[in-house]
Amino acid sequence: MVPGLSGRKMTFGERRDGVDYQERIGAYAIILKDKCLAAIRTPKGYFLPGGELDEGEGHVECIVRECLEEIGHLVIVKEPVCVAEMFTHHEEIGYLHPVGHFYLAELKEKVKEPFERDHELVWIAMDGIDDAGFQEHQRWAVTLVVGDG
After folding, report:
1. Cβ atoms within 10 Å of 128's Cβ, excluding its own
2. In sequence order, which residues have a C-beta less than 8 Å from that of residue 113 and are 6 or more positions away?
């Protein structure tokens, strides 16, 4: 357990008055091994394993499903770390309000080929996290666990 982290919340960006934001609730795994962080490399950048919740799906179920789809691995989801939200604008999608629920997790065996072929599991050294281009709220969640948060 990471003492005192599960109640942490942070907001990035500011809600603009009169703007209709698309809210996206997601759950993400922070997986550490040998002083490295598990990340998903895609053509759009680096992300933590996880994603948007399907209707009726809980955080743990979402993380397990997304890890199977993205990297073909089972995971064990452990304790919650934090919640972080952003108010942002995406060129193609418009105004977004992603709300991420972040959990410590343990990577288990690969059980199938990933469904998402353009997603690759990579391990990023802790000192390279800032340079990897993670979204601001994901980077903050990781720093809570590894320090400097």
Report:
1. 13
2. 72
Fill in the amino acid letter for 30. Answer: I
Q: How sure is the predictor about 45, in pLDDT bands with cuts at 50, 70 and 90?
A: confident
Helix segments in 26-149, DSSP class H:
59-71, 136-146
What is the C-alpha to C-alpha distance for residues 133 and 57, in angstroms, rounded to an integer?
28
Q: Nearest Cα to 71, choosing from 122, 106, 12, 105? A: 122
Mean pLDDT of the chain: 90
- Comparing 43 with 3, which gets the higher pLDDT? 43
Question: CB-hemisphere CA count at 13 Å for 100?
Answer: 29
Q: Encoding tokens for residue 70?
A: 């993205």
Helix (H, G, I), strand (E, B), or coil: what is residue 145?
Answer: helix
Of the candidates 118, 108, 115, the residue with the CA atom closest to the CA atom of residue 41: 118
- Residue among 80, 79, 84 nearest 99 (CA): 84
Please give the single-letter amino acid code of residue 126.
M
Instruction: Return the pLDDT at 7.
Output: 74
- The single-letter DSSP state of residue 127 is G
